[in-house]
Amino acid sequence: MSIPIKPVFVDEKLREVQESGRLAYRSHALPTWCPGCGYFAIVEGLTHACNAMNLPRDQTAVVSGIGCSSRFPFFVDLYGFHTLHGRALPVATGIKTANDRLTVIAVGGDGDGFAIGGGHIAHAAKRNVDITYLLFDNGIYGLTKGQTSPTSAVGLRTSTSPFDNPERPLNPLLMLLSYGVSWLGQAYAGRPDHLRGMIADAIAHRGFSYLHILSPCVTFDKTSRTYVNLGLQVREIPEGHDPTDLMAAMRLAQDTDQPALGLFYHQKRPTLGDTFDEIAARARAKTAPATD
Fold it and tell me: In this predicted model, what pLDDT tens digit does every residue of 5-23 receive, in sequence order?
């Protein structure tokens, strides 16, 4: 016999706070992640960023794929689209192309984004679609109970690597830089104040912005990505780093032993929407009736 799942609602005190405007972008549904998961900080980071930027709720959309991270649209009071596994970016691209006035934010995990969905990232970056992609990287498949993911560390023991993971993890930052991303940053769920600012900066960028968010899986990864280990390893981007220097950003991205937090790279260039506008203008000029 199936048991109906009832939605979980915040208590009345939190509901009052939300309705007062201080948590205007949070839904009444409570996140259902494991206690201690860094994804809680990412929800709060996005809602605080939306509040600081005063984004219209009816002009903002959050798109997700499948995985722990992809439950995200349920927990924010914005338009949400829970899509197929790995397909958040093409759906987000379609939404932005259909209505360029919208603020479109795609969210996904390391498995959703760099396994089944890995082919879409290159095209979103090279086209410079004016959307923000928040990638939650916990180095494991959490929703399906802890299998090895594309960013799992060497030696991680999981149900799909019972004799330790022999594969080197992908380097998402280097991949995005090689794809032609126009904004690239990295944050850490264990530093929520910094995370909020990075999310706001990513959304404010005009073009494809990619924010890589490191976050431990406290349930299925007991070794490589604990808060203690990540807290000791992460560092601020060195003073003097030039975020317009692509090669400098690549050198910084190669240091995976001490992940740097902050803005790696940004570039101003036409967006996909700009390109479409220019094509439309040329087409109108070509088909316009001749005048005497």
Answer: 333 334 454 455 455 454 6
Count CB atoms within 10 A of the CB of residue 287.
Answer: 7
Domains of the chain with bracketed CATH: 12-283 (3.40.50.970)
- Report how far Cα 267 is from the mean position of its chain's Cα atoms: 19
Report the alpha-carbon distance of residue 103 to residue 138 in Å, rounded: 26
Identify the three-state secondary structure at position 209.
Answer: strand
Q: How many CB atoms lie within 10 A of CB 234?
A: 18
Residue 179 pLDDT > 90? yes
Contact 146, 232 (CB under 8 A): no
Burial class (CB in 10 A: 0-12, 13-18, 19+), 85: middle
Q: From residue 174, how far is each of 106, 113, 199 by CA, in Å?
A: 20, 15, 20
From the centroid of its chain, how far is CA 226?
20
Beta bridge partners of 261: 236
What size, in residues, is the chain?
A: 292
Cβ atoms 47, 23 nearer than 8 A: yes
Cα radius of gyration rounded to whole Å, the chain:
20
Q: How far is CA 58 from CA 77, 132, 210, 216, 272, in A?
A: 9, 17, 23, 32, 23
Average pLDDT over residues 56-85: 93
Fill in the amino acid letter for 265: Y
Alpha helix positions (H), 99-245: 110-111, 118-127, 172-179, 192-204, 227-233
